[in-house]
Specification:
The protein has 565 residues and is α/β, with parallel strands linked by helices. Helices cover 35% and strands 18% of the residues. The protein has helices at residues 18-28, 45-54, 78-91, 137-152, 186-191, 210-222, 248-260, 286-297, 306-313, 320-326, 341-345, 349-355, 414-427, 441-451, 472-488, 498-509, 533-552; strands at 3-6, 67-71, 95-99, 105-108, 111-114, 120-123, 129-133, 167-168, 172-175, 179-184, 198-202, 233-238, 269-274, 367-373, 381-387, 392-399, 429-435, 492-493, 511-515, 518-522. The protein starts with a strand and ends in a 13-residue tail after the last helix. The relative contact order is 0.10.
Length: 565
């Protein structure tokens, strides 16, 4: 199944309070509003695994994660799971209390759990403060309503807590000893709080306004105030965000990219995103679309029939892009995207290895061309290779300013870039090198002087390496060449390494901009932190490969007519 799961080093489901937690949830909680109202909770395999993951501990019994991102298609009961975790955080044994020798027990409301040897034991939090946040009161009701139901319906095991002094209200639940569960939106959350032990941010793809983003920032900042043994954390539930809306979910997704690329230090995020994949060409194929829905929904198909999903997908009143986002939970293109996401990903080494014959890895002596786009401080610097024989793009270097505090004075390491160029010429047979000169003119001139005699194609009649991307006509043609190759499937790209993933990120960040000389690419808006430099470098490497291939083709022999006697 297409699923992106990012866990911390040392993560182990064996060393988790989730075993106790899943027992507690299935023993003491009921489903809230809906077709299964009042029925005992039975976690499906995915939910069970998520609880094990989110309560994973380090060797000292401390939580591995202080935030979790649970992304599923619309209709997968994300809010219901958040509600049950809120109950566990408020009343259950959700923090570490030592390692079991075997045979110890936990007893609650007349039910008993027996620990296995080596298993972490649990305890409740003193004065738990649980906050349920959303964009509007009605939305908080999805989660808070299930919590309220479990404390006020006589069928619910937790109904017995009323006798112990729990006071359920429609907006606040008071817990004896100073604890509470509250529901709030942006206004209330920004005015009070600060002692939360657990927070639910529901549907963070909707957190797109300055007020909602400020709410998120304020509440997450406040979590640090409740230190010590409370180990506060928060949960984001969401469906796929709209690209370019700058939602909280989009920001977390970008953090996950940074973690996957090794760019984020000391991250304590559990990232769990499940989705379905289908190409634009296959959208009208009902069998393939049904398979994509099965991939996206998994166990949640029990209450989301495939036939219903297909009916909605083929309803002409529903935009395809929205169905991809909401029902397949897939990343979609932003406005004016240069390349379709599915088209680009279908040419990745990882996908080709599954669907058809993958490209051979780049090896010593391969005939390649290079593309370079450089910056000084805020943007990225990229060196991309393109193997001439099969147009396989392979990033050799992508340097960019880290997206974390403490790097305001960051500058690209120019000697390391120069060394990367030297390694490329030493390892491969480089027949073309197109480099954009701005901010790197001295290096570009030096590269031309040192390597120019080896190159079979030159960037221009005046310079063997310097290829100015500000020439809109030439740049538009180079970009069109790469775009066409992606659409036709006549190229491939590396996508399994950190550099390969960074290249994909840059390509998908690129937006189309119309200029007098044609359509070029740029950022989504001026000063956007979303880099595109590797996409530019890839286009230059690809253009150099095309120029070399055209030059290397044998000239056609001219035919001279003659008479046969």
């Amino acid at each position: 199944m297409p699923r992106r799961l990012i866990t911390a080093p040392g993560h182990s489901r064996e060393r988790s309070l989730g075993h106790l937690g899943t027992w507690w949830l299935e023993t003491f909680t009921l489903h809230g509003a809906g077709a299964m109202t009042g029925q005992r909770v039975q976690l499906n395999d995915e939910q069970y695994g998520f609880v094990l993951d989110v309560y994973a501990l380090d060797g000292d019994g401390r939580r591995l994660y202080d935030s979790a991102f649970f992304s599923r298609p619309k209709g997968c009961d994300k809010s219901g799971l958040a509600a049950k975790l809120s109950l566990l955080e408020a009343f259950g044994p959700c923090r570490f209390d030592g390692w079991a020798e075997g045979g110890e027990t936990y007893e609650y409301l007349g039910r008993v759990y027996t620990y296995s040897r080596g298993e972490p034991m649990g305890r409740t939090i003193t004065a738990p403060m649980v906050r349920i946040l959303a964009t509007e009161e009605e939305q908080t009701g999805n989660t808070f309503g299930t919590i309220y139901f479990n404390l006020t319906d006589s069928r619910a095991p937790l109904f017995d807590l009323l006798a112990w002094g729990v006071q359920p209200g429609l907006s606040k639940i008071v817990i004896p000893g100073g604890g509470q569960i509250v529901r709030s939106t942006s206004g209330a959350a920004s005015k009070d709080g600060g002692l939360e032990t657990f927070v639910v941010f529901d549907e963070t793809h909707l957190y797109v306004t300055p007020q909602l983003r400020a709410m998120y920032q304020t509440v997450t900042d406040n979590l640090g105030k409740r230190a010590g043994d409370a180990e506060p954390w928060y949960l984001e539930t969401t469906t796929m965000f709209g690209p370019g809306e700058e939602s909280v979910a989009e920001g977390t997704y970008e953090l996950a990219d940074a973690i996957a690329e090794g760019k984020a230090r000391r991250s304590r995020l559990l990232f769990d995103h499940r989705y379905g994949e289908i190409s634009h060409e296959d959208w009208r194929d009902e069998d393939k679309l049904a398979d994509a829905f099965r991939e996206a929904y998994g166990d949640s198909l029990a209450w989301n029939p495939v036939e219903m999903l297909l009916n909605r997908a083929y309803d002409p009143r529903r935009p395809v892009a929205r169905t991809r986002r909401m029902r397949l939970n897939s990343v979609t293109e932003g406005e004016n995207a240069w390349i379709e996401i599915e088209a680009w990903k279908s040419r990745g080494h990882g996908r080709l290895a599954v669907d058809r014959m993958p490209p051979e890895p780049l090896k010593r002596g391969d005939v390649v061309t290079l593309g370079f786009d450089g910056s000084g401080t805020n943007d990225a610097t990229a060196l991309i290779a393109c193997r001439v024989s099969d147009r396989y793009l392979f990033p050799l270097l992508i340097e960019e300013k880290p997206d974390m505090p403490g790097h305001d004075d960051w500058e690209v390491d120019r000697p390391s870039v120069d060394a990367a160029v030297a390694r490329a010429f030493a390892k491969y047979t480089v027949v073309g090198f197109y480099a954009d000169p701005p901010l790197w003119q001295d290096y570009v001139d030096a590269w031309a002087k040192e390597y120019g005699s080896q190159l079979k194609v030159h960037a221009s009649g005046k310079h063997s390496v310097g290829w100015w991307t500000k020439r809109d006509v030439q740049m538009a043609l180079a970009l069109e060449r790469l775009h066409t190759a992606v659409a036709l499937g006549t190229m491939a790209h590396e996508d399994l390494t950190d550099l390969g993933r960074a290249l994909t990120r840059h390509v998908l960040n690129a937006r189309r901009w119309s200029r007098r000389g044609g359509t070029v690419i740029g950022k989504e808006k001026k000063n956007s932190p979303k880099k595109i430099d590797a996409a530019v470098a890839a286009a230059l490497a690809f253009e150099a490969a095309a120029d070399y291939a055209a030059k290397s083709q044998p000239a056609k022999q001219a035919s001279v007519p003659f008479a046969i006697r």
